[in-house]
Every structure is written in structure tokens, then in C-alpha cells.
Amino acid sequence: MGIDNAHYYGWDGKLHSPWWATLAIVRVALLQVFRRKSYWLVIALGIFQFLVFWVIIYALLQARLPADAQRELFKLFNFSPTVEPGKDNGYIEFMQRQSVVVMILLAFSGSLLVGADFRMKSLPFYLSRRVDRRHYIVGKLMAISVIISLLTTVPALLLFIEYGMLTSSLSYWTDNWNTVFSVLTYGATICVVLSIMLVTISAYLQRMAPIAITWSTIFVMLGLLAQYLRNATGNDNWALIDPWLDIRLVGKLCFGVFSDADGMERAISAAMILGTVCTVCLVALTHRVRAVDIVE
Amino acid sequence: MSLLRAWTTLLWLSFRRLLWSGSTLMVLLPFTACALFLIRRGFWKEANLFETFNDFSLFMMFVFASFVVPICAVAYATASIGGDREDRTLLFLLVRPVPRVLIFFAKFIATLPLVLGLVMGAFYLYCRLGGDIGRAAYPLYLPAIFYMSIAYVSLFHFFAVSFRHSTIIALIYALFMELLLGNMPGIVKRVAINYYGRSMMYAAGVPHGLDRPEAEWFEPISATTAALALVGITLAALLVALVVFQRREYTDLT
Fold this sequence. Notes:
The complex is a heterodimer. Chain A has helices at residues 21-34, 37-62, 67-76, 90-97, 99-119, 123-127, 133-151, 153-165, 171-175, 177-205, 208-233, 243-255, 261-288. Chain A is mainly α. Chain A has a domain at 18-207. Chain A starts with 20 loop residues before the first helix and ends in an 8-residue tail after the last helix. Chain B has one domain (2-253). Chain B is 78% helix and 0% strand. Chain B is built from nine helices and no strands. Chain B starts with a helix and ends in a 7-residue tail after the last helix. Classes of the chains: A mainly alpha, B mainly alpha.
């Protein structure tokens, strides 16, 4: 059928900015993830941990124990509702505990959300509209950031709200307002770093198995090796090859809880490492996202 | 004769497809990271042999055997049948006049040399990089690494024939269940393949300087029992996978 017979006609109305398309990309990506039953298995692991902490906070606050006993009991569960000298608050610790679940979920999501666009050749369909590579990349980064936030930042904030609601006044919230700030900045660091790395790795590797192998090598194995090298050489800088530690240190740069002078220096080094990695990833990603595959 | 030719063709094709895949390239990443670690760590330079043997053994146990071996098995074992399921080419295999049992064994046998070759080759290389300590550790830990590798390959083949997204299930098992359950107190860790491999390594390594684990966290079983358990897991997983593959109707292929 000729194009004239199909009754296509031009759009006379005012066009929205193509940046609005990023929201559609986020919506579709979330639908893709949440309709897979096997992904819910991983999400359930993350929700389970959140529920455990929810119940612990509820049970310990309802028990009406003396403050010292309550603090000791919270310590028993490795949770501290307030910032202690040289330590992070319990909400940050909770977000770190979610890292395994986040890592596994992202290892699978990369192939579904980004890899499939390249493997199934659907990228040209995105880029044939007013959406260009900037909108595509930002949309995918936002989609992955939303998934990460749903497992880390949002539950941590809910726990903070729960703790405050179960006390007798607003003083917990007003005294610890900077906790919200620390959770948000740490969450933002996780989202930015993980989403950039995941989208880049997925754009190049495309299939689930290689993405998952690379992802787990970076986020599990480097952590183990960093620990061994630090213990063997006595040089704390080796710990910086662990990306989770780097993310944590960069998060700390924003809310400044350092136990010693070296801490700040290491955090700056971590920021430089992550900055370099993210820049390289973004350059590689921009090079990879193009409407036409170049075939040799 | 034609059946044998069909089988060997499938075996060779599967082997080549697995070998020249993105997984092979990516699996080299953890192997290279381990080699770089061993070069930087320099076990051959250490004077205290007992302490160095302990450090080398812990690296082999908690990094190589607990992470690299299962990851290598995931890369190939889930992709051998899982890759065909994902690409929907399994249908073309199943409609051929080749019994399903032979198709399964072709896939399994195509996977084994890749996993065993990479794992055993890397293990040999790492032991050479460990100097005298590594040479001493090689014969001690070789059986544990071998039995663990075949157990993982069998188990992940079972996942591949049973679940549609077998890579997800295998990775959750390898990264979450094994690491989490393998380090829990009590007997819950006995569901992990890792536990039996570590038991064999402790049984072989403790007389040579490997520190005995704390009893409340890890109580190893004897090397013979552990080896039998790993062989049992291998055979049981193979048998169940075979039965599932023989009887199952793969409706997701069309």
C-alpha cells in the first residue's frame, strides 16, 4: 500500500520537548522488569530484608525499654538509628546490605532493558523518532536509577519515617534531619555510578550471562581481592579497587562522617576513581548508541 | 552410524558455539584478575611457609573455588541448553530424529571440557604462580576443584532444562545461596556444593598448615564423605535433568 493511501498526515499541534520521552522509556522499562516472575524472586529478597528491619524497629520501640538497653539491642541487629562517632547511621548500613540484591537484580535487568535493544535491533526504532541518543541514554539511566532507588533509598527513608512515627514526639526527625540528606546523597551516588556502568556494559555485551559474569566480577570479586591485598600488604589504598567501598566513600564526602584524617583523602581518591570510570563508560556508551550499526 | 554422526556433529557444533561466545571472553576477566592478584601478592617471596600456605589456601578456597569455579560453570552450563532455549533453536534440535537423551549428553559433554579445561588450567597456572607453596597445594586441592566443577556443571544443566530463565536461577544460587548459606552456622550450609568442596580442601590442607576453621561456624566432614556427596550431587542432578528433558514439553519455543 502506498504511503498516500494510508492517510498519514502531519501533526499540526505543538510538539512537546523530546525530553518527555525519557519518562516513557522509564515507564516501559519498569513494566518490563516488574512483569517478569523470576525478577520478583530477587525483588522479594530485597523486600524481605526491609521487612525484617521494619519489624525489628517496631518490636524494639514498642517494648518500652530503657534507652541504653534499646541501643544495645539495636546494636545486636547492626542497626543504629542515630549517627555514632566514626560510624554511619543504620539507614546507610541498611542500604549497603541491599547491595547484593541490587547487584543481582541489575545483572539481570541490564540484558532486558538495554542489551535486548541492541540484540533485537530495536534501537533504530527509538532513534528514528525525535528521540536522539541523549534522550535514550538518559531514559535508560533514569530507569535503572528508579529500580535501584526502589530497593535502597526508598526503603531506607521509609524506615526513618517509621522510627520517627513510633516515638512520642517529632524530635527524632528534627534532631536527625541530616540522616535524610545522607541517605539521599548516598542513594544518588549509587544510582549514578551503577546505572552508568550497567548501561555501558549491557550495550556492549547484550546477553545476560556475559553481563552477569562481568557485573559480579566487578562487584563481588574485586571486593574480595581488595580485602586480601589490603591484609597482605598493609596498604589501605588497595581497598579502593572495591567499587562498593568507593561508592560508600563518595557518599560520605557529601555528609562527612570520617573517623580519621586519611578518610577524607581516600574519599577524594575514590571520587576520582569513580569519576574516571564513569567518564570512560559514558564516552564508550555514546559511541555505542547509534541508529545504524556499522558493518565491516 | 548416521545417529553417531548426528551426535558428534551436534557435540562439535555446541562446543564451538560455547567456545566462541561472549561468555568465554568475559569469563577470562575473573581468571585474569586472580592471576594479577597472585603476581602482586607474590606468595613465592614469603619466608614463613606455614603462614603463606594458609593465605594461599584461603585465597583458593574463598575466591577461586567459591567464586571463579561457579561463575565459569554458570557461563557455559546454563548457556549450552539455555542458549538454545533463549534463541528458540532448541525446537530445531528436538524435531530431528535424535533421541533427547543423546541431545542432552551432547550438550553436557560439550560443556565439560570447556569448564574443566579452563578451571583446571587456571588452577595449575595459579599454583605455579604460588611457587613452592603452590606446587605443594596443587595435588592437595586438585580433587576438590575437579569434583566441585563437575557438580556445578550438572546442577546448572538441571537448572537449564527445568527453568526458562536458568541463568537467573543459577546466578542466584551461585552468588546468593552459596555465599550466604555457605557461611551460615549450623548444618544449613550442607545444601551448598561449596561446603563439600571446602570440606575436602580443609581435610587436605590442615595437615600442611591451613588453619582449622572455628567449629561453631564450619564443621567439615571427611574428605571421602565430601567427595561422595559431590559425586552424588553430580549424578542425581544429571539423572533428574535427563528425566526432565526427556519428558518435558517446551511450549515456550514456538
